[in-house]
């Protein structure tokens, strides 16, 4: 385990230059560099401006900035969340974030409001989120679809104001603008991306379709119908490992199966989920197995929602143990 950055990949010579000065050679290279942002697609906002208008879509200092701004905000302030268009990291994430901010505001700053200006016209688990918002936070969260004035044209960082395509402007006490995304920067310089900025791979073993011997998993890869989630990345890692073991051992790999569940907390004791099992076919790539998984029922009672919240916590414990221990 080397705790250092990979600076450069030479796909022809099969070498990786590290920030610590060393160069490694490889038989197989597995990359999971996560996401980067398409700053050029957002007028008025860049990585520096994100110190004032945080995205908080990568771990680390960004999430602390958002948390501090929410704590410092006066009661009665407006929180604006601007989720990007598809594809992006964690499809239900912005709406879970809105829910949990609402939970905080209801307790500490009940006169405040949350406005979600979406680039999209629909979002993951939408009926379940909206139902939860209506029952737990009536009147606090307003969601505006992309086609109905949600799409942002320009950001004025200094005044924390968002200008929409339809000519409206919204100034927030806190503005959480989540920019459109692409694969993490390392894979761009290595020429592993397509025109949209994501990595095309053979979805059976995650080997790049551009450079042989390099596998890309997680958010950076194009993984058919799988969402960009931590659970999906974990599942892809296992399939990729099995594929590499088979390739190096000269055996044929069994047909893979992949899995994902995305739990969201609408409140700490109110959980909802979407789950699916996936398989691979040559024609369709990774596809959802018909009848597998599904979303939480709409007519569930409080006890059911509380159980799902507990499953969400249990899922988090097991996925972190499975991934990192
Ligand atoms: C608010 C929010 C909530 C979420 N909730 C869930 C959830 O409930 N369930 C779920 O399954 N997923 C969730 N996700 C999504 C999940 O976090 C991502 O899908 C997952 O982290 C993707 O894993 P990854 O390995 O592709 O990228 P990352 O987790 O971002 O890992 C990439 C790593 O590579 C490192 N790296 C990048 N470039 C280099 C380089 N050149 N050299 C060395 N290291 C490098 C980065 O520092 C980083 O540590 C959530 C995301 C957000 C933002």
Number of helices: 6
Low-confidence blocks of residues: none
Can you summarize the main beta sheet? 4 strands, parallel
The CATH class of the largest domain is Alpha Beta
Number of strands: 20
Oligomer: single chain
Listing every helix as H and every strand as E from the N terminus to the C terminus, the arrangement reads EEEEEHEHEHEEEEEEHEEEHEEEEH
Corresponding CATH superfamily of the largest domain: Flavocytochrome c sulphide dehydrogenase, flavin-binding domain
Radius of gyration: 21 Å
Report what the structure shows.
- It is globular, with a radius of gyration of 21 Å.
- The relative contact order is 0.14.
- The two termini are about 15 Å apart.
- It is built from 6 helices and 20 strands.
- A 4-stranded parallel beta sheet has the order 8-7-6-12, with helices on one face. Strands 17, 18, 19 and 20 form a 4-stranded antiparallel beta sheet that branches.
- The mean pLDDT is about 95.
- The chain has 2 domains: about 5-30 and about 185-325, Alpha-Beta Complex (Flavocytochrome C Sulfide Dehydrogenase, Chain A Domain 3), CATH 3.90.760; about 35-180, 3-Layer(bba) Sandwich (FAD/NAD(P)-binding domain).
- The longest helix has 23 residues, at about 300-325.
- The chain has about 325 residues and is an alpha/beta fold.
- Strand 2 (about 15-20) and strand 3 (about 25) form a beta hairpin.
- Helix 2 runs parallel beside helix 3 (about 125-135).
- It binds flavin-adenine dinucleotide.
- Flavin-adenine dinucleotide binds next to helix 2, helix 5 and strand 17.
């Amino acid at each position: 385990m080397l705790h250092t950055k990979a600076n450069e990949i030479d796909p022809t010579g099969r070498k990786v230059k590290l920030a610590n000065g060393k160069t490694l050679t490889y038989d197989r290279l597995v990359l999971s560099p996560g996401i980067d942002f398409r700053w050029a697609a957002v007028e008025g906002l860049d990585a520096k401006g994100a110190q004032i208008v945080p995205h908080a879509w990568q771990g680390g200092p960004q999430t602390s900035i958002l948390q501090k701004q929410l704590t410092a905000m006066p009661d009665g302030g407006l929180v604006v969340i601007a989720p990007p268009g598809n594809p992006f990291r964690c499809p239900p994430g912005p709406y879970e974030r809105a829910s949990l901010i609402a939970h905080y505001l209801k307790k500490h700053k009940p006169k405040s409001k949350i406005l979600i200006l979406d680039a999209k016209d629909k979002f993951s688990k939408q009926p379940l989120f909206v139902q939860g918002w209506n029952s737990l936070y009536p009147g606090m969260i307003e969601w505006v679809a992309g086609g109905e004035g949600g799409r942002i044209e320009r950001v004025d960082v200094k005044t924390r104001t968002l200008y929409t395509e339809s000519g409206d402007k919204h100034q927030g006490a806190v503005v959480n603008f989540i920019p459109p995304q692409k694969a993490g920067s390392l894979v761009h310089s290595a020429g592993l991306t397509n025109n949209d900025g994501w990595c095309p791979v053979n979805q059976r073993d995650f080997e790049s379709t551009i450079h042989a011997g390099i596998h890309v998993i997680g958010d950076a890869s194009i993984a058919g119908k799988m969402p960009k989630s931590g659970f999906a990345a974990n599942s892809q890692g296992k399939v990729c490992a099995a594929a590499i073991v088979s390739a190096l051992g000269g055996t044929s790999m069994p047909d893979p199966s992949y899995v994902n569940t995305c739990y969201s907390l609408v409140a700490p004791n109110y959980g909802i989920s979407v789950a699916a099992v996936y398989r691979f076919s040559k024609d369709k790539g990774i596809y959802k197995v018909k009848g597998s998984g599904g979303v939480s029922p709409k007519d569930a009672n409080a006890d059911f929602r509380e159980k799902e919240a507990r499953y969400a916590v249990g899922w988090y414990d097991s996925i972190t143990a499975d991934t990192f221990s």
